[in-house]
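Subject: sequence -> structure tokens, single chain

Hey, anyone have a minute? Need the predicted structure for the following. Not urgent.
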Amino acid sequence: MKPVLLSSVLLVALFGLQGCASQESQRQLEQASSTFQSVSEDLQILREAPKDVMRAAESLERAQRFAGYWGSAEDVGHYAYLSQRYSEIARQHSEQTQNQRRATQLNMERERLRQALQEAKLIGLQYQDHSQEEQMISLAAAETDRGLVMTLGDVLFKAASAELDPSANRTLLQVVHFLQLNPKRKVRIEGYTDNRGDAAENLALSKARAQAVGDFMQSLGVDAQRLEVVGYGEQHRVAENASARGRAQNRRVEILFSDEQGRLNNSR
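Reply:
Had a minute. Here:
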């Protein structure tokens, strides 16, 4: 091959490689820009991770500056990557801060409930001559063929989550109070779901919700040996799953109370 022709072939190959590198670096730059825009428009992230957002902005600016220079695809990709990572770190930092804040609020709420429970216990000592049946009625428990059962609806949990909503506190506080006044009583906490979604995931969610109720009771001083937790998933529906109302009724947690000697009926 003649030298001139060889040089032409090499130049074509070189430009081809640079073109591929430029396309890849441009893709990285666009992705970094999109991620940064999402982060920079989130006021929560801006408040909780300003330094990481600033680093993401500086790296993105460098990547954009290098993108204007011929033959700087490697530098563009490098700073686009840094900007992308700083944006992701900012988002993770914000999420961690929010989780810590929620945990702090939850601990404060539980401490407030402990104090309220202690006050309720002192008041309740004045009324221990009331029949246990009357106390159970006050808990809105229903007499069934399995014994006394209280039903906690789906609205007491975050949507599709095992996290208890604060609206559940009052109801569970009453249950804990009742158990303190009746130290031989035990409970079985049963979780149920509707039939939408994956059956295995529904079973896990039902168990997690029942466990969340049990953990809450334990945090307020109920001995773990007095609590039995089980999840049934889609089994044992109380309504048809064909309607939204029926599915809502099936998404529930039931608290089954033992007799006065602590005997629970057999599991389903």
